[in-house]
Amino acid sequence: MGCARNEVDSEEIAGRLAEGGYELVGDGEQADLVVVNTCGFIEQAKKDSIDTLLAASDTGAKVVAVGCLAERYGAELAKDLPEADAVLGFDHYPDLAARLGDVLAGHSVDSHVPSDRRLLLPISPVERPAAASEITVPGHSWGPASRIVRRRLDDAPVAPLKLASGCDRRCSFCAIPSFRGSFVSRGPAEVLSEARWLAEHGVRELYLVSENSTSYGKDLGDTALLETLLPELAAVPGIDRVRLSYLQPAETRPGLVRAIAGTPGVADYFDLSFQHASGPVLRRMRRFGDRESFLALCEQISALAPEAGIRTNVIVGFPGETEADLVELEQFLIGGRLDAVGVFGYSDEDGTEAVGLDGHVDPAEVNVRVQRVTSLVDELTSQRAEDRIGTEVLVLVERDGTEDLDDMAESEVGLASGRGEHQAPEVDGECVFTEVGGVAVGELIRARVVGSDGVDLIVEALETMEPSRSAG
Q1: What are the CA-CA distances from residue 86 to residues 169, 429, 451 (Å)?
Q2: So what's the pLDDT on residue 381?
Q3: How far apart (Å, rounded) are the C-alpha atoms in residues 166 and 210?
């Protein structure tokens, strides 16, 4: 459940369980045990996780909850959800195969007891013993490569690759640091090792994920380390595109902007977590910036890469937000020329500073503001998509038109689709081809934009771009 970071954790769990002698079965097959990797970020994610656990219990299999919801609530979740046979936290991951064996044998496994992970030593979901080979680049000695304990759960041509875990920021609305812990970068050798492994398993695009990618390397003594690592990732044999996610605007240095915009093989894509544009609201969120500085960053990006994609999330109805604050946010959205915007209404999260702030906005008014900003965003992002008509895009094909026919609109059946450089998996729009057939999943196609539908682009194929480097 939840974000791409959880997707990586799920594949690491799958790899460790496979090494522990478990056989993973496909959808629709009867399992003896179901492990649900939950999300505990916002209320809807919690509900979805609990609904999934309940649905799993109806299959007759043993059910184990892991992941963020299990880490955050632990024994409390176990008490309120007796349908789960065990609730295990991050500290159980290294010996998870043994703990699941206990569950299958009918033994009781003590539920995880939550604690503030900011007060604990850094954790790693999977231990990665060193391998013999060395990862080196000119001017750098990054130490030994790592044995990869990960099992892909699909054969998609794009896969997330985790840069770090945790977060050192203390945004007043966010509980993530309390259950994910402080920010810990993965070593460059480890990241490169996993990138090579993913390429060998058919991945053409790496989607770099973390809670705050702009912090990468600061705990390793090099705040510009990401600028050095990006070209090395783009040069991995078999990888044709590297995409970076979750940039903190206040930490997005000019050097990093240049590295993203100017490195061949790195997507011109900027996932910037603005959250708001009013200075006073941002201060109450314990964040930095304002409309002027955010617009300046967007202009800097556009000057270096005019066709770059920029996406963000915003929170409306934060405690103390005034009409003037909301107008300030709207003016930023109008001037920023963003490709995708997620609009969220504020709600209290357990254990966060914002719960105790004055000036809480009535929930009904929060919904009104969400609809107001969403309507504006829909108009602006549709216009941004229209502006791309006539341009060329490189599309990584992810669907050839033959999958999930029951879930597709009649007009879309048989149409292939994928994503351009300015479109990230799941959270942004996609490129839909005009012709039926002719492209295959995993191909990189140069295409011309001939129309748009909301944030989606309608494209016609021009040329198949063969991989510039072979994996292996």
Answers
A1: 31, 38, 51
A2: 97
A3: 8
Task: Give the span between the Cα atoms of 65 and 87, in whole angstroms.
Answer: 5
Give pLDDT tens digits for 73-84. Answer: 888 888 888 999
Residue written as token pair 């998509």 = 385
* Contact present, 260 and 238 (Cβ < 8 Å): no
Contact 226, 246 (CB under 8 A): no
**What pLDDT is attached to residue 77?**
87
d(CA 310, CA 342): 12
Residues 21, 27, 30, 33, Cα dihedral to 10°: 50
Nearest to 39 by CA among 68, 8, 80, 10: 68
Where does the pLDDT of residue 433 fall: very low under 50, low under 70, confident under 90, or very high at 90 and above? very high
* Three-state SS sequence of the chain: CCCHHHHHHHHHHHHHHHHCCCCCCCCCCCCCEEEEEECCCCHHHHHHHHHHHHHHHCCCCEEEEEEHHHHHHHHHHHHHCCCCCEECCHHHHHHHHHHHHHHHCCCCCCCCCCCCHHHCCCCCCCCCCEEEEEEEECCEEEEEEECCCCCCCCCCCEEEEECEECCCCCCCCCCHHHHHCCCEECCHHHHHHHHHHHHHCCCCEEEEECCCHHHCCHHHCCCCHHHHHHHHHHCCCCCCEEEECCECHHHCCHHHHHHHHHCCCECCEEEECCECCCHHHHHHCCCCCCHHHHHHHHHHHHHHCCCCEEEEEEEECCCCCCHHHHHHHHHHHHHHCCCEEEEEECCCCCCCHHHHCCCCCCHHHHHHHHHHHHHHHHHHHHHHHHHCCCCEEEEEEEECCCCCHHHCCHHHCCEEEEECCCCCCCCCCCEEEEEECCCCCCCEEEEEEEEEECCEEEEEEEEEECCCCCCC
Q: Which of 113, 115, 96, 108 is nearest to 35 (CA)?
A: 96
| Residue 41 or 229, more confident | 229
Instruction: Say if CB 146 and CB 128 are below 8 A apart.
Output: yes
Taking the C-alpha atoms of residue 433 and residue 416, their distance in angstroms, rounded to an integer, is 6
pTM of the full predicted structure? 0.89
Q: Exposure of 282 by Cβ count < 10 A (0-12 exposed, 13-18 middle, 19+ buried)?
A: buried
Question: Residue 49 is encoded by which pair of tokens?
Answer: 């996780």
* pLDDT at res. 111: 84
Within 10 angstroms of residue 58's Cβ, the number of other Cβ atoms is 9
